[in-house]
Design brief:
Blueprint (H helix, E strand, L loop, with lengths): L3 E3 L1 H11 L7 E4 L5 E3 L4 E3 L5 E4 L6 E8 L2 E5 L3 E5 L3
Antiparallel strand pairs: 1-4, 2-3, 2-8, 4-5, 5-6, 6-7
The structure holds zinc ion (ZN).
Length: about 80
């Protein structure tokens, strides 16, 4: 597995996709219910693709794969993602 980074490693890409700054958005883990800022999440690049894990239980929260001019965004491990308007 690739080296672990923090959520800042994906905040830029996710922010581009949703058109908002996401560093301080709050994600709630669908497995353990822990909440954390996106900046605090655990990120593994080239895992393959990008894998975002819960800092409390290491469950997969999100997978991001880019290729052929497209992005596949899997947020199925998140219960919610709360953004400030
Ligand atoms: Zn968790």
């Amino acid at each position: 597995m690739s080296a672990r980074l923090d959520g800042n490693a994906v905040a830029g890409l996710l922010g581009e996709l949703v058109g908002r700054e996401l560093t301080l958005a709050t994600g709630v883990c669908g497995s353990c219910g822990a909440s954390a800022f996106v900046a605090e999440l655990h990120v593994y690049l080239r895992a393959p693709g990008t894998v975002v894990r819960c800092p409390a239980c290491e469950a997969v929260l999100s997978r991001i794969v880019e290729g052929r001019g497209r992005v596949w965004l899997d947020l199925s491990g998140l219960a919610t993602l709360e953004l400030t308007l």
